[in-house]
Each structure stands twice: as structure tokens, then as C-alpha cells.
Automatic annotation (TrEMBL):
GO terms for cellular component: cytoplasm; cytoskeleton. SMART domains: FYVE, PH, RhoGEF. It comes from Amphilophus citrinellus (Midas cichlid). Gene3D superfamilies: Dbl homology (DH) domain (1.20.900.10), Pleckstrin-homology domain (PH domain)/Phosphotyrosine-binding domain (PTB) (2.30.29.30), Zinc/RING finger domain, C3HC4 (zinc finger) (3.30.40.10). Residues 1-157 form the DH domain. This is FYVE, RhoGEF and PH domain containing 4a. Keywords: Cytoplasm, Cytoskeleton, Guanine-nucleotide releasing factor, Metal-binding, Phosphoprotein, Repeat, Zinc, Zinc-finger.
Length: 464
């Protein structure tokens, strides 16, 4: 707050991030903890805690406010860390303190979410060991009922927080790979696998991270500290297929075929995880398409937009934002309704307000598309895609050179790669696994007069 008062960033940012944590801390430090410590000192004469808990547990409902605001708090923390170098420096300074135990601020902010369920678990254990005729049993049971009510508000957030913790761990293992710590990402499975070479019988050790929406195909890094893996390829679950294969040298092999790349892998326990993940993804997409079909039949026309109340799409009919197609979650992408068309959208796609005629020209929240139509403002032109966002094969007509080459690094096996030197970009040689791949897996040297890095050999098959 001291830095906020200096004008580094708005004080409301701190209040929105930490919600009512100061009230929770005051309750514990001034009431619950002192009363329990005092009773522990009197345990020989008064062996009971049920009366204290029955008196104080109703105040645990204040955790519901913190849990309710937790998703927005995490999003604000991420936004301001990315936006403001001063804010980021303050967070890093806090995290470097010994009292933080080398944990991130996000880890500490998750603790209050888990606190009430922990109380519930400890009180259940206490009751299991308490005799049926014990004088403290009645008060303890009543306290458990109250805590149980408060805990129900936290269970969903706990599941999300555990997933977020895992995402943070993966984020660190991958050397701060972007778009990992995203609440819409749900971790499914990880593990060592063997990747079978396409041209011979060799196999290479690799590591997979499987999420609800993508697969990270990684290479282990043999270093004492720092990141453990390097991401070689991202393959989206959308359009992915898996097929069991037969290999005399390696049992339990299967092929993963995605839009970005096809891999043949050997791993005993991954095949079913892939199948289930793809099935769930397809089911969500199907429900989304069905909802869109229903919407088209009853949607408000452009001429009536804002003049007639729309039919609201039910929350349970869609699983992702009907504008940006991002999956809904309890952390940062909650469901909102556009008051003009009735679509279910996320908060990012409904961050506009316009007066609606059918509601007495009161200001109402609407989606981006309806905002553009009702205000007459045109949509912003899409950002031009960079070279790393376009398939390699699309440079065939606009390149100095493109074609297959043989690539070998540090005397390893020669591999066939698709190489591109774009005509309108810097003179850089991009190496791809195939013409259909967007992300190059190497970006090693300039293709002009610069020498090759030590240990790198290129043998041209042909060039265009």
C-alpha cells in the first residue's frame, strides 16, 4: 500500500488483489488463535475446544468473500505483473524475503482458500477420537456443521488452486514457457516416453505434458539447475487423433497425429489418457456447436438489436465463451451474458456497456460484436501474423529458398527438415519439422555471411 500511495499504481489494485485478507488475519490473530492457545494452557482442567469453535466458526464465512474474489485477484496480479515493471519489482522483492520460504506470491494467496477445509478435516479427526459421552462432543458436532457449510464455498476453488499450483511447477520446469499458467489450462498427465525415429529403428527419450487443450512434446535438459525441459513442439488437442501401432522392437507404441505434427511414441500408460482427453474435448465442442445452432434459431436480428430483449442462453448449454472460444473456468473466465444478444461470454468479451432501448436506455453490459454494431464503431483490424504464426509451406512463393535439407547437430543422426529463408524478412534460416508446422524447432544462424555454429552441419538435398 505504501508504494500504491506513492502513485506507482492505483491503491484499488492492492485492495482488489488481496480482498478481505486483512479481516481474516485480524480474526485469527486477535480471536481464534489467542482463545485456542489459552485453552491449551488450561487443558488439564478444561479439556474441550467445541465451545470456542461454536462461538467463533460462524466468522469463518468471511472466507467465502475471499474465495469469491480469488479468480479476479489472480487475473489482476498477472495483469499488473506483466504491465508494470515497478509492480513486478515489488512482487519479486516480497518473494525474496526469508519469511516467504522461496515460494511465489501466488502460492501464498492459495493458502486461505484451503484453510477452512483443513479445519473441517482436523475437526472430523478430533470427533473420531472423542468418546460418544464426552461433554465436548455436542459443541464440536455443531461446530463441524458450521465449518462444513463454509467449506462448500471453497471446494471448487481448491480444485482450481491445486491445478494452478501444478501449472506453476510446470512453468518453472519449462523455463517460464509462456501460456502455461493459464486457468483455462487443466493438467492431465506427464511422464517420460520414447519417441521412435521415422527413418530407422532408434528411439529418443522425451517428456510429455498433457493438458486438456494441448500436448507439450519436450526434450530433457541435462543441467544441475534451472529448467528441466525444453518445449520442442506444441500440439493442439483440437483435431488430434491417436492410433495404436505395432513395432517389433518396442511394445505399447501409438501414433499421435495433430495439426502441427505427427509423432510415434512408446509409453504404456499414455494411450488411454490421450483418448479420454480427446473425447472430453470433442464433447465440449459438440455442446458448443449445438448451443450455437439453437442460438441462430432464436437470436435477435441486427435491426432489433438493443430494441428487443434477447433470449439468454443457459449457462449449462455452453462450456466456452461464444465469442473468443476460450473455455470457462472458476478462476478467470466466468460466464457472463450479453444483454443485447443473450450470448454466454467471458468477462474479457463483455467489457463494454451501451444504452439499450428495451431497458429504458439504461447502460448494459454487451459483447464486443454487439458494441460495434450498436455504436457504429468498426472492428479493429486483425494483427498481421508473424512468421512464427504461419505454416512453413506458405512461404513457397515468397522466399529466397525453401525446401528439404539434411540437418545434423554435434555428430548426431542426419534428419530431414524443411528449411525456409523468407524473402521479405531478415536473412535468417528457419528449420521446421515439416512444411505444415508453424513453429520452427531451430533458429540457429543467419543465412548470409555468418559462419555455422560449432557442431552444426547442413547438407542440401535441393533448393527452390
Amino acid at each position: 500500500m505504501e508504494e500504491a500511495n506513492k502513485g506507482t499504481f492505483p491503491p484499488d489494485v492492492v485492495k482488489n488483489i488481496f480482498s478481505n485478507i486483512s479481516s481474516i488475519h485480524a480474526f485469527h490473530s486477535q480471536f481464534l488463535l489467542p482463545d485456542l492457545e489459552k485453552r491449551m494452557g488450561e487443558w488439564a482442567s478444561t479439556p474441550r475446544i467445541g465451545d470456542i469453535l461454536q462461538k467463533l466458526t460462524p466468522f469463518l464465512k468471511m472466507y467465502a468473500e475471499y474465495v469469491k474474489n480469488f479468480d479476479k485477484a489472480m487475473e489482476l496480479l498477472k495483469q499488473w505483473t506483466d504491465r508494470s515493471p515497478q509492480f513486478k519489482a515489488i512482487i519479486q522483492e516480497i518473494q525474496s524475503q526469508q519469511v516467504c520460504g522461496c515460494l511465489t506470491l501466488q502460492h501464498h494467496m492459495l493458502e486461505p482458500v484451503q484453510r477452512v477445509p483443513r479445519y473441517e478435516m482436523l475437526l472430523k479427526d478430533y470427533l473420531k477420537k472423542l468418546p460418544q459421552d464426552d461433554p465436548d462432543r455436542r459443541d464440536a458436532e455443531k461446530s463441524l456443521e458450521i465449518i462444513g457449510t463454509a467449506a462448500t464455498h471453497s471446494n471448487s476453488a481448491i480444485r482450481k488452486s491445486e491445478n494452478l499450483k501444478k501449472l506453476l511447477e510446470i512453468y518453472e520446469m519449462l523455463g517460464e514457457e509462456e501460456d502455461i499458467v493459464n486457468p483455462s489450462n487443466e493438467f492431465i498427465k506427464e511422464g517420460h516416453i520414447l519417441k521412435l525415429a521415422a527413418r530407422n529403428t532408434s528411439a529418443m527419450e522425451r517428456y510429455l505434458f498433457l493438458f486438456n487443450n494441448m500436448l507439450l512434446y519436450c526434450v530433457p535438459k541435462f543441467s544441475l539447475g534451472g529448467p528441466k525441459y525444453t518445449v520442442r513442439t506444441r500440439i493442439g488437442i483440437d483435431g488430434m487423433k491417436v492410433l495404436e501401432t505395432t513395432n517389433e522392437d518396442y511394445p505399447h507404441t501409438f501414433q499421435v497425429s495433430g495439426k502441427e505434427r505427427t509423432l510415434e511414441l512408446q509409453a504404456r500408460y499414455f494411450f488411454q489418457a490421450f483418448q479420454k482427453t480427446i473425447e472430453i474435448f470433442q464433447q465440449k465442442n459438440e455442446s458448443f456447436k449445438n448451443a450455437l445452432k439453437d442460438v441462430e434459431e432464436v437470436s435477435v436480428s441486427k435491426a432489433e438489436l438493443g430494441k428487443r430483449a434477447p433470449r439468454w442462453i443457459r449457462d449449462n448449454e455452453v462450456t466456452m465463451c461464444m465469442k473468443c472460444k476460450e473455455s470457462f473456468n472458476a478462476i478467470t473466465r466466468r460466464r457472463h451474458h450479453c444483454r443485447a444478444c443473450g450470448y454466454v461470454v467471458c468477462w474479457k468479451c463483455s467489457d463494454n456497456k451501451v444504452p439499450l432501448e428495451y431497458d429504458g436506455n439504461k447502460m448494459n453490459k454487451v459483447c464486443k460484436d454487439c458494441y460495434c454494431i450498436l455504436t457504429g464503431e468498426g472492428k479493429a483490424e486483425g494483427k498481421k501474423k508473424g512468421i512464427l504464426e504461419i505454416e512453413a509451406g506458405q512461404f513457397a512463393d515468397s522466399s529466397i529458398m525453401c525446401g528439404f535439407l539434411q540437418h545434423s547437430e554435434k555428430s548426431k543422426i542426419w534428419q530431414k527438415v524443411w528449411c525456409v529463408i523468407p524473402e521479405k524478412e531478415s536473412l535468417v534460416l528457419y528449420l521446421y519439422g515439416a512444411p505444415q508446422v508453424k513453429q520452427p524447432f531451430k533458429l540457429d544462424f543467419y543465412a548470409s555471411s555468418h559462419p555455422l555454429p560449432k557442431g552444426l552441419r547442413i547438407c542440401a538435398l535441393y533448393s527452390l
